Amino acid sequence: MAWLGKRRSALGPAPVSGRELLLVDLDGVVYRGDGAIPGSIEHLNRAAAEMHLGYVTNNASRTDRDVAAHLRSLGLEAAPEHIVTSPQAAVQLLERTVPVGSLVLVVGGDGLVDELSKAGFRVTRSAADSPDAVVQGFAPHVGWEHLAEAAFALAERPGTELLPWIATNTDWTIPVARGLAPGNGTLVSAVHTAVQRLPVFAGKPEPAIFETAFGRFGTRNALMIGDRLDTDIKGAQAAGIPSLHVLTGVDRPKQLVAASADMRPDFIVASLNDLHEPYPLTEISPDGAARVGAARVRMIGNKVEIVDRGQEPINLLRAGCAAIWASGLAIYGLQVPAELYEDHWR
Length: 346
What we know:
Blueprint: E1 11-12, E2 21-24, E3 31-32, E4 35-36, H1 40-48, E5 52-57, H2 64-74, E6 83-85, H3 86-95, E7 103-107, H4 110-118, E8 122-124, E9 133-136, H5 144-154, E10 165-167, E11 173-176, E12 179-182, H6 184-195, E13 200-201, H7 207-217, E14 222-226, H8 229-239, E15 243-246, H9 253-257, E16 267-269, E17 279-280, E18 282-284, E19 290-292, E20 295-300, E21 303-308, H10 313-327
Parallel strand pairs: 2-5, 2-14, 5-6, 7-8, 7-9, 9-10, 10-13, 14-15, 15-16
Antiparallel strand pairs: 1-17, 3-4, 11-12, 18-19, 19-20, 20-21
């Protein structure tokens, strides 16, 4: 295997080239913990001068005003109308399900209550009030008593229709300063176990939150930027738009190499510093070998072979993903060298 390739693949346009709208995840893309991720503010503000930006979040605990204020404190040019939340998508689903003015039992925080109130719905926290629907989202204070009220309201009763149940998102985890904590998906699962049915979901990876964004900004010519394959990237595919995975958040090279067909991004970058840079094209040779830059990876049966490391680890990762994805083989049956998914970006 050579360290220096004799030939490099051609460069294509930058990931943002020709886009009218960027949809940007927050945790792991814009910030991590309390601080902005290096490069994110500069390059997102640059993009905002050229196209629409929508900040898309599954976190239902904050209002769009609070999120916008947080982003402005980091240096972004953000207003509430730039924030697309799972509660907003949930309310749009609810409006198609029950009449405006209906009483809704809320499991969650201010983000849900605010959007429901703005849309004209009444809110309760008690199943004893005979609500017309249940809407569930994440908030740090949600505990057993809140989940129990949802279960009481959603219990099947002979002779009556099942109460509508909408959940903002399915995220199993949520990144916080100390690491990954249980997310809304775990809380929904608790209620699901009690009532033996599932809600309708509004947030990523479901199309509803993307449709909310397309409607607000008036275009579907969009690129989704995210750090999670099962929400950001899978959601972009379901919505029919390209996606960019950035290695500053949750999913790492090992998850990228193993990504199923519905979770494979169109672009892989180390950070948002690469957002406006020409992106190397992937060349697949007749023998199934993939070249990106000077890096070259090929398949020999179920064995993944690094033919040329090239000079840039990110191109080796891109080439490895391309070769494995093009093979059509299940990742658990492959022999993959650890060097291919070594994490240089922690």
